[in-house]
Specification:
alpha+beta, five-stranded antiparallel beta sheet, 9 strands, 41% strand
Amino acid sequence: MTGSVALRRLSGLPRSVFGTALAHIGLGVTLIGIVAVTAFETEHIVEMKPGMTTDAGGYTLRFDGLRKGNGPNYSEESGHFTISQAGIAVAEVWSSKRFYTARQMPTTEAGIRTFGLSQLYVSLGDDMKDSGVVVRIRWKPMILCIWLGTVFMMAGGAVSLSDRRLRVSAPARAKKQKKPVLEPAQ
């Protein structure tokens, strides 16, 4: 089969075929993301003091210290982290613990950094007696594939629904015909 024949046959396919292919590609991308996160995710829970470092996902995190602050209805402690790779600083992230005074409720605001299709999560835990703080660090490789796959599936659905064959309306119902009245023979 020549290339022009194959191209002509490809262009003759209905859009729903391309939509189906896109949706299946999306499912594959989502599964790759789920498997990568499940198999290669790492989590470190460490006590850190200002100046200390730890490794996660091929990056080195240095804890630079805490800063206290106040919001409209909360007080917070924010931790600053510098992220480096091979000794070169590539990013920084802030994580905080907030305490809402009206409800007497603490919350944690994780710092999230995206590197390609992967993400690094940093959250603060309890304060320690010796000016340290418990830090939870999670490396989730390929996590954005999960979301990217769903975008492919949505696009596949949209392409399938744009197929002309699906837009043609159903034929109208035929009107009921009156049954002829048979008169008795004479």
